[in-house]
């Protein structure tokens, strides 16, 4: 009789790749040496700690102690996400011990490529110094509130970066950015500034930054009410390759989209732009402004289109006209079409599903009374893989599971993930046999992937 131990070792990678949860991978490491050899790499390849994880702060301590005391394990880490961190409320000695484990663990992570460290007050000068010693580090996402924890000039130690994301940067951190970019030698390709109505991110700052970002591919600005079309144009104008991704959220109410369109048109248009995200300010809910936005994108091979209304009230007819034009211009390329807090008519949704033949991801807002009509429309999107529906008004009480299941059973066979409101499921297939007939039935199951579902990453408030 064949035994489990007789399984050809060549099959182990094909088996292990189906395990997504770190807890499951950790159990695989305990099976035997062969399983350990294959499972330990995906277990440590990407490490993430979110604030909602059970005992998240204890996990931080356990993690960095492991990385500090086991260099061979630390060397397997390529992506590190620390979104929680213990406060210094315990003994000074234990807190200093944790800090020591952090610095030693990071220095042992010689193959670290991406680091996210967003907990306010947890990033220090010592940690930044350790990160600067990681020879393969090219991506960081950090909290920009430096006061009392690190010096803005400590950031200049990180010189091999291609992707930077700064969250709530302080004024001194913002001031050091142009010099930091200059020291990098124009290598940056992705820049994100996420602020909270920060008046210090201005066109002047973008002008200084644009001198050192000629190879920028993706620009994301959020919460920058002093940024106008002039600053964005400077970032575009000084780019030698052309932006591939542009995200503008909560910018100046005097942002002149017509002027930006005219400037880009004179330069040949945004011919490399594949992704565009826009938050519609209430002052911009006019036919002229929306038309200028569509014209700005006319020459772009747009694949990802996301639009947000910070609050309900944008005219439905105006939004329909705008989205119809976007679909007409980009139906051959669009892969993702998402609109949040912006209710479109079923005619627009049908146009998206029927004309955008490459559509894989759809995020939309509908009235619950329309749910019965949505399914047959979605069935016409042959490549649709990810769907999320938010409701204008949620019935009380409401269980979204049945609605999600009804829609999934009408969608094309490509559907793999569906969500309604705050619930998200993966789509599973079950083979059933009845009266000699074999049928494949679709059902909903809990998502096992450790990644945050895209639906919760894209919603702007």
Strand order of the largest sheet: 1-2-3-4-5-6-7-8-9-10-11-12-13-14-15-16
Tell me the number of strands: 16
Class based on secondary structure composition and strand pairing? alpha/beta
Oligomer: single chain
Beta-strand proportion: 15-25%
> How would you describe the shape?
globular
Q: Low-confidence stretches at least 5 residues in length (pLDDT < 50)? A: none
Rg calc: 25 Å
- What is the mean pLDDT? 90
Major beta sheet, specifics?
16 strands, mixed
Helix content estimate: 25-40%
The CA-CA distance between the termini, in Å, is: 60 Å
Number of helices: 17
Describe the structure.
The protein is of the alpha/beta class. Helix content is 36%, strand content 19%. The chain is built from 17 helices and 16 strands. The protein has helices at 12-16, 22-29, 33-45, 56-69, 71-74, 92-108, 125-132, 171-184, 203-210, 229-237, 257-266, 287-296, 316-330, 346-355, 371-378, 400-408, 454-458; strands at residues 46-49, 79-82, 114-117, 139-143, 163-167, 190-194, 218-222, 245-249, 275-279, 304-308, 336-340, 361-366, 386-391, 417-420, 423-434, 437-445. A 16-stranded mixed sheet has the order 1-2-3-4-5-6-7-8-9-10-11-12-13-14-15-16. α2 packs antiparallel against α3 and α14 runs parallel beside α15 (371-378). It is globular and about 60 Å long.
């Amino acid at each position: 009789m064949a035994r489990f131990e007789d399984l050809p070792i060549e099959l182990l990678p094909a088996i292990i790749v189906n395990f997504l949860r770190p807890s499951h991978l950790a159990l695989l490491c305990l099976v035997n040496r062969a399983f350990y050899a294959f499972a330990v790499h995906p277990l440590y390849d990407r490490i993430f700690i979110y604030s909602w994880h059970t005992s998240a702060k204890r996990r931080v301590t356990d993690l960095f102690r492991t990385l500090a005391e086991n260099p061979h394990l630390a060397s397997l880490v390529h992506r590190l996400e620390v979104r929680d961190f213990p406060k210094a409320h315990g003994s000074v000695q234990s807190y200093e011990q944790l800090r020591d484990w952090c610095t030693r663990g990071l220095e042992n992570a010689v193959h670290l490529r991406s680091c996210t460290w967003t907990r306010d007050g947890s990033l220090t000068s010592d940690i930044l110094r350790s990160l600067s010693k990681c020879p393969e580090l090219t991506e960081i996402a950090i909290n920009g509130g430096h006061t009392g924890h690190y010096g803005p000039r400590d950031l200049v130690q990180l010189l091999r970066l291609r992707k930077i994301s700064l969250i709530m940067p302080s004024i001194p951190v913002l001031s050091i950015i142009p010099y930091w970019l200059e020291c990098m030698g124009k290598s940056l390709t992705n820049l994100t500034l996420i602020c909270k109505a920060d008046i210090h991110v201005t066109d002047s700052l973008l002008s200084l930054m644009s001198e050192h970002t000629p190879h920028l591919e993706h620009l994301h600005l959020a919460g920058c009410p002093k940024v106008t079309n002039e600053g964005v144009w400077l970032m575009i104008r000084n780019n030698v390759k052309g932006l591939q991704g542009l995200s503008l959220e909560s910018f100046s109410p005097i942002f002149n989209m017509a002027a930006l369109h005219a400037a880009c048109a004179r330069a040949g248009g945004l011919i490399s732009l594949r992704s565009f995200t826009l938050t519609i300010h209430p002052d911009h809910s006019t036919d002229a402004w929306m038309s200028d936005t569509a014209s700005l994108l006319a020459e772009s091979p747009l694949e990802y289109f996301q639009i947000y209304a910070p609050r309900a009230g944008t005219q439905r007819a105006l939004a329909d006209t705008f989205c119809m034009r976007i679909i007409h211009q980009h139906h051959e390329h669009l892969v993702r079409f998402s609109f949040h807090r912006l209710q479109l008519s079923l005619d627009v949704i049908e146009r998206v599903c029927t004309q955008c033949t490459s559509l894989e991801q759809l995020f939309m807002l509908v009235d619950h009374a329309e749910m019965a009509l949505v399914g047959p429309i979605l069935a016409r999107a042959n490549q649709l893989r990810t769907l999320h529906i938010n409701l204008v008004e949620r019935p009380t009480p409401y269980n979204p599971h049945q609605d999600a299941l009804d829609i999934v059973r009408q969608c094309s066979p490509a559907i793999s993930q569906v969500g309604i409101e705050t619930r998200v499921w993966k789509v599973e297939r079950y083979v059933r046999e009845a009266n000699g007939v074999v049928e494949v039935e679709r059902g909903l199951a809990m998502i096992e992937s450790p990644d945050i579902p895209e639906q919760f990453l894209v919603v702007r408030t």
